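Section 5.1 Outputs to date
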Amino acid sequence: MEKLEANSNLNFFQEKIKILIAEDNELNMRLTKQLVNKVLPNSLLYEAYNGEEAIKRMIELAPDLILMDVQMPIMDGLQATHFIREEIKDDQIPIIAVTSCNNEGDKEKCLEAGMNGFINKPVSEGILREALMKWLSNKGKDIKVHVDFNIIHIYTLEDKEFEKVFISLLIKSINEALQDFHSHIIQKDLVAIKASAHKLRGAAATSGLNKITLITSKIEALKDFEEDIIKNLMEQLEDEAEIVDKILSNYLTEG
């Protein structure tokens, strides 16, 4: 990996970055937090002490990156990562293994589980900096994170008039879905909430709305009506819907 200067991309280090640290050892947790705070002084750090808790906090918080210990109680880091990739269908969030395992094949197991990178303990500031720069430096810069217009072009057969109608209906369907969600949440109807999420996820996936697809997948994965988690997911969905609305509306205006 190319060596990075300590002050490279200073604007990146000044961003508010949310990082979830999954680590069952209290001392290692404190050391990792201290290192991350040194590299990213303005970062928001969250803790999880086993794989199940990491999954729950990931759904609740939507962090920008996860530092995942491999060996943890209840559910280990490999199982948690596999669940995030295969059950929640989140292939966007970077997950970095942080482990003292140095046996042959450990790195391959982490990558096979869906992790993006591998850091050995004890973690050094330089290695951590390189990993964070690699996986966070392009955060939010690519419009495809929100809307992949290539998918819309393909779906509408590159018919400009049909595309305008399609996008207008898409904006309307998102707004209607948000209203449905609020109604179901007031009634605490998890079945209806998940049904609305499934419906919106289908429309979003077809239309290249990648983050909405991801958030609705998280809602569909809920097992119980946990008000705080649902509230956080709705905030994420509303924020993303606002971004998508602006992108699509600007596209219609400019088109």
